[in-house]
Each structure stands twice: as structure tokens, then as C-alpha cells.
Amino acid sequence: MSEAKKISEIKRKPEWIRVKAPVSKGYHETRNLMRGLKLNTVCEEAACPNIGECWTKKHTTVMILGDTCTRACRFCNIKTGKGNPVDPDEPANVAEMVVVTDMKHIVITSVDRDDLEDGGADQFVKVIAAVRAASPKTTIEILTPDFRNKPGALEKVVAAKPDVFNHNLETVPRLYTHIRPGARYFHSLNLLSRVKEIDPEIFTKSGIMVGLGESEVEVIQVMDDMRSADIDFMTIGQYLQPTKKHVAVEEFIKPDQFLKYKKRAMSKGFLHVSSSPLTRSSHHASEDFEVLQAARRAQLEKAESKRLEDAPIDIEEMKKHNPNYEF
Ligand code: SF4
């Protein structure tokens, strides 16, 4: 394919996707803090459209293990190349950021590190431990790579007990070779299923981008696949083309279609679904975590009352408690 063909024009965004430029005082304070602690964020590296809103509220998604990814997904703005040396100060710096911003819920992600023997699992564990030690009340959400061909890496991270384990499927299986060539759909799905098998208390979460040429039927199939992997929380957001070199947007999905997806997904039994043009997996993560907890409590209470309803009646026990009643 010629270079001219590979470079696609960036489609003009519809009015429902426009976001304000990040100019607030809070945004600049967050930016300075991250620079001071030498921390990377996916907010900046992935050119997230929500950065103005999130950083004003001091909500960031820290990206550990450097700013260079060893994969080259066609939708992602993160730099590709040889991975950076692992920074031994990173766990302490992330913990300091959590303390300084009094963060209630942190989202930690990383670049893919196919060059490291454990895919970076050890650094995830160290960062989780440092945050727990510095701020025990902060809840921790991780958004991990797929740890493909890294035996033992997933188990190591799950043993560190994050509150939420997120790994994005990103798109429908048919588009993997085109959009996410280094990954495998069923490997990613299986990763999330394994998290639940190992530790059912951890909430699992996964998301896809739409507008890449997928059909509605394919999106619904992904919902079913996610439910069979026992995933608790699904996110669906519009893909936005970061630069002309990235894969083009096929379609800007309308807000009412996002709503339709949300209703359909909720009917399939997810504890929570976030589906809107600007949904990103870490957007409103703290509020979403509270929704997840409440939904699980309600589910457990329902299961308990069903258990009591279905329990066989012990007449002798009832007579003991109700001596004047005729059985
Ligand atoms: S949605 Fe996530 S990635 Fe985007 S700015 Fe907010 S925290 Fe960062």
C-alpha cells in the first residue's frame, strides 16, 4: 500500500463529541504534579478527550512502565518502540501522587512490555503495594496488558488484590487482525475469566470502542462473550482517530445507539454498563466503583433472600419459637 493510501483524513467530529480545551487551574496543577513526580498518564499519551474534565478534578490514569509500548495497535496514540528501563522510584512516586491529591480511587495502567520476562507484572504488584501502604483507604483499579506468553504474570497481579481488574477487549473479534494485530480476542477474554476464577471478589471490567466498522450484532456478541467470562462492568465508547496515521473512524455512533447498547448490555446481567460517545474505561472510575459495590450488595441480598425462601421448613424449629401456634 502506498504511503498516501495509509494516511487517512481525520473526519470532523459531530457536535455531540466536542469537548472544551483544558484550561482550568486544576488542570495545570495536576499537570505540574505529574511532571514533578515524573509520572506518565494515559490521559496525555492517548490524547484522551476527557482530560480537561478529569484533571480539573485531579482524576488521572497513571501509566506505569514508561511511555513506550512494545506493540503497535492501529488505534492507539502511545509511542511504539523498545521499552524504557523500569523505574525503581515509580511505585513511591505513584503513592506520593495518591497522598498529595487525596485520591479515593486510583486507576493504574501500563504500556505493553513484551520485552520483560513477566510483562511488567512485578511493577504492577510493587505499585499496588506502595499505594496500599501510603493510603490504605484508596481503592485500586488496574487496567492491564494481556500478559500474552508471560506465564504466571496474571496470577502474580491477581494475588496483589486490586479492587477492580480491567482489561479492554477494544473491538469485536473480526477486527482484531486489522486493529489489534499483536493481541488475540479469546486470550483477552480468557484472561478476565481467569481473574474471576482465581479471586471472585475482584470486580472485572472490560471495554470496547465503536465506530471502527463493527456491526450491532457483533457488539451484542461481545456482550454475551463478556458475560460468559463473568465480567461485571462493560464500557462502550466512540473511537476517535488520534492522528492521520491511525486507522480512520468508520462512523460516529449516535448517542441514542449508545443508549440502546447500554440497555441491551444491562439486560444481560452486567452489574454496571457505561456507554456513551465519551466513555473511556477510566472516565468516572471512582463513581463507577461505588455503583459496582452497590450493585453487588443488592445482588447478594437478593440471592440470600431467595436462599431463605427456598430453604426447607423445619417444623420442629418453628414449634419451638411459636409454642401457641397450631402446626
Ligand atoms: S477518561 Fe481516563 S484517560 Fe481520559 S482523561 Fe479521564 S482519567 Fe485520563
Residue share in helices? Answer: 40-55%
> Would you count the extended β strands for me?
10
Bound molecules: iron/sulfur cluster
The low-confidence parts are 1-5
Following the backbone from N to C, one meets helices and strands in this order, namely HHEHHEEEHEHEHEHHEHEHEHH
Shape: globular
Task: Note the total helix count.
Answer: 13
Query: Which structural class do the helices and strands define?
Result: alpha/beta
Measured distance between first and last alpha carbons: 84 Å
Overall average pLDDT: 93
What oligomeric state do the depicted chains represent?
A: single chain
Radius of gyration: 22 Å
Strand content: 5-15%
Query: What's the arrangement of strands in the largest beta sheet?
Result: 1-2-5-6-7-8-9-10
Largest sheet: 8 strands, mixed
What is the fold's blueprint, element by element?
Layout: H1 3-6, H2 25-36, E1 40-41, H3 42-45, H4 51-56, E2 61-64, E3 68-69, E4 79-80, H5 90-101, E5 105-110, H6 121-134, E6 139-143, H7 153-159, E7 164-166, H8 176-179, H9 185-198, E8 203-210, H10 216-228, E9 233-238, H11 255-267, E10 272-275, H12 285-310, H13 315-321
Parallel strand pairs: 2-5, 3-4, 5-6, 6-7, 7-8, 8-9, 9-10
Antiparallel strand pairs: 1-2
The chain binds iron/sulfur cluster.
Residues 42-43, 48, 50-51, 54, 59-61, 280, 282-283 line the site of iron/sulfur cluster.
